[in-house]
């Protein structure tokens, strides 16, 4: 079965795993998913990630270690994660008009001509692009 939107699938797997408080989530890997995981790691939303060859079939497996804060409730560091640009409706923005996520408390991930980067990095570099997702 082919997947229409692998990025949305990745975000949904992370969202579902955090809601049931899993410590690790596994998914099929790709270059863009690995870059998105790298950004989430740099921003402090996940503890780490690893890419390994798939045991069954071709490709790779991306494994993400979710980050939890607080010892009692074990709240996930990711309170919300949403897909913005979808295959049916692409959302592009210029560097000057990149909106802040929750007044700067969250982060927007953009696909630019310089690769995937956060909204802060895109504003600093003066480049716009496709808004992939919002994380807070």
Topology:
Elements: H1 6-19, E1 24-28, H2 31-42, E2 46-53, E3 60-66, E4 68-69, E5 75-76, E6 81-83, E7 92-93, E8 107-112, E9 115-118, H3 119-125, E10 129-135
Antiparallel strand pairs: 1-3, 2-3, 4-5, 6-10, 7-10, 8-9, 8-10
Pfam families: Ribosomal_S8 (PF00410)
Subunit structure: Part of the 30S ribosomal subunit. Contacts proteins S5 and S12.
Family: Belongs to the universal ribosomal protein uS8 family.
How do you describe this structure in short?
This protein is of the alpha+beta class and 136 residues long. The protein has 3 helices and 10 strands.
Provide an overview of this structure:
This protein folds into 2 domains: 1-78, Ribosomal Protein S8, Chain: A, domain 1 (2-Layer Sandwich), CATH 3.30.1370; 84-135, 2-Layer Sandwich (Dna Ligase, domain 1), CATH 3.30.1490.10. The chain has helices spanning 6-19, 31-42, 119-125; strands at 24-28, 46-53, 60-66, 68-69, 75-76, 81-83, 92-93, 107-112, 115-118, 129-135. The mean pLDDT is 94. Strands 6, 7, 8, 9 and 10 form a 5-stranded antiparallel sheet that branches. Strands 1-3-2 form a 3-stranded antiparallel sheet, with helices on one face. The protein has 3 helices and 10 strands. The longest helix is centred in the N-terminal third of the chain and has 14 residues, at 6-19. It is an alpha+beta fold. One of the primary rRNA binding proteins, it binds directly to 16S rRNA central domain where it helps coordinate assembly of the platform of the 30S subunit. InterPro entries: Ribosomal_uS8, Ribosomal_uS8_CS, Ribosomal_uS8_sf.
């Amino acid at each position: 079965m082919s997947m229409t939107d692998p990025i949305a699938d990745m975000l949904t797997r992370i969202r579902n795993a955090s809601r049931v408080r899993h410590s690790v989530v596994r998914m099929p890997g790709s270059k863009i998913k690995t870059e998105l995981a790298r950004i989430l790691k740099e921003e402090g939303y996940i503890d780490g990630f690893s890419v390994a060859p798939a045991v069954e079939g071709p490709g790779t497996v991306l494994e993400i270690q979710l980050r939890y804060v607080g010892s009692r409730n074990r709240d996930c560091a990711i309170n919300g994660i949403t897909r913005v640009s979808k295959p049916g409706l692409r959302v592009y923005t210029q560097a000057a008009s990149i909106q802040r996520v929750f007044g700067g408390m969250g982060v927007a991930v953009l696909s630019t001509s310089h690769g995937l980067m956060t909204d802060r990095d895109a504003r600093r570099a003066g480049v716009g692009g496709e808004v992939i997702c919002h994380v807070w």
